[in-house]
Amino acid sequence: MTKTITVLPGDGIGPEVTGSAVRVLGSVLDKSRNKIRFVEKKIGGAAIDAYGTPLPQDTIDQCKQCDAILLGAVGGPKWNQQSMKLRPEQGLLGIRKTMGLFANLRPVKAFQALIHSSPIKRSFVENVDLVIVRELTGGLYFGRPSERRGTNKEQVVDTLAYSQFEIERVVEKAFQLAMKRRKKLTSIDKANVLESSRMWREVVNETAKCYPEVEVYHQLVDSMAMQLITNPAQFDVLVTENMFGDILSDEASVITGSLGMMPSASLRSDKVGLYEPAHGSAPDIAGQGKANPLATILSAALLLRYSLDMEQEAARIEEAVRDVLNQGYRTCDLQTGQQDEKVLNTEEMTDRVINEINKATIA
Fold it and tell me: What is the DSSP letter of 104?
């Protein structure tokens, strides 16, 4: 049976890193009975240039009929003067909302070969293995449109809105994930200040009754920001609302040493998901072969795991990335100047990962 993956390269380094991930997927599936068809469409700034909108209907239609979506990155200074409705980022927000992708998963796991790249003490990060579950389609980013008030427009209002249902479904997803891991869930909010956070905490406590095996902890977001750096190994599954998750997941990237190592998955209730690296479009290095493809390659592994139920193939990709790093190969963002490091460009790093996958297949 043929599965369809919609590829949305986007802007900046997006085409480079999605190209790498597609090559890796092709390699790992070469001897598989599962056949995959890739269909490429435009989003973000590239779509604005081609169609005058960051999210063309043609892209939406293709995404609605595929099994999974692989996305690169959107945005760049070229489109900074656009109105908010025409900014590239609206394409990303729009496809998440249109597809109902309400739960964003960001695994944070320390690779032993890269621990020295993290600015955090080795003893703090070497046993880190956590997942941040971020609500993705509600909160400030999707509230009533921002407005400026007052005679001279000297006041601004943004709206943080959540329904109970929106909270329930992402919290349920986090509990399900915790059951498959170490059965420990930390819910992050600002319940001492925000009414939305008080509802969030109520929903977590109610849902916890259905999962008696899961240890549940509540953490205020400001305290969480500190503990994520000073003692990250204590955490297993973290669940939080949209903006808090956006900030904390980027903070967590220092644990891995680079945003270039951070994959992500955006899921809904069925198996359809959108997979993308956590980093941005990095237009300053686009087209120079400097982009680190590993976050997108690891995102492709998540695609196989969560959307296509191909756990063995997903693990093969992750093992190949680990082995390449253990051999001392680095992209420039991971370079620390150590003697045994061998710095590669985007294509060369992709070749190394594919080589490891092929070796494992032959073995």
Answer: E
Q: Report the Cα 275 to chain-centroid distance in Å.
A: 7
Q: What class, spelled out in words, does domain 1-105+261-363 have in CATH?
A: alpha beta
User: Active site includes 162?
Assistant: no
246 counts as catalytic:
yes
Q: Say yes or no to pLDDT of 363 above 60.
A: no
Angle between helices 346-362 and 294-306 in degrees, nearest 10? 40
In 3-state terms the chain splits into helix, strand, coil percentages (rounded to 5) of 50, 20, 30
Which pTM was predicted? 0.89
Query: What average pLDDT is seen over the chain?
Result: 93
Output b/e per residue, 218-241; b: 16+ Cβ within 10 A.
Answer: bbebeebbeebbeebeebbbbbbb
Among the listed residues 11, 162, 190, 323, the single catalytic one is 190
Distance CA 46, CA 101 (A): 22
Q: Which of 58, 222, 284, 309 is catalytic?
A: 222
For residues 201-220, give the mean pLDDT: 98
Tokens 């509540």 sit on residue = 218
Catalytic site residue from 11, 236, 246, 323: 246
Residue 294 pLDDT > 80, yes or no?
A: yes
Residue 222 known to be catalytic: yes
**Residue range(s) in the chain whose domain bears CATH number 3.40.718.10:** 1-105+261-363, 119-148+155-256
Cross-strand partners of 276: 264
- Concerning whether 58 is annotated as a catalytic residue, the answer is no
CATH 3.40.718.10 fits 119-148+155-256, yes or no: yes
Structure tokens given for 118:
């993290």
Task: Confirm whether 250 is a catalytic residue.
Answer: yes
The residue behind tokens 């500190």 is: 226
Q: Is residue 260 within 8 Å of residue 294, measured between CB atoms?
A: yes
Q: Which residue is catalytic, options 141, 211, 217, 351?
A: 141
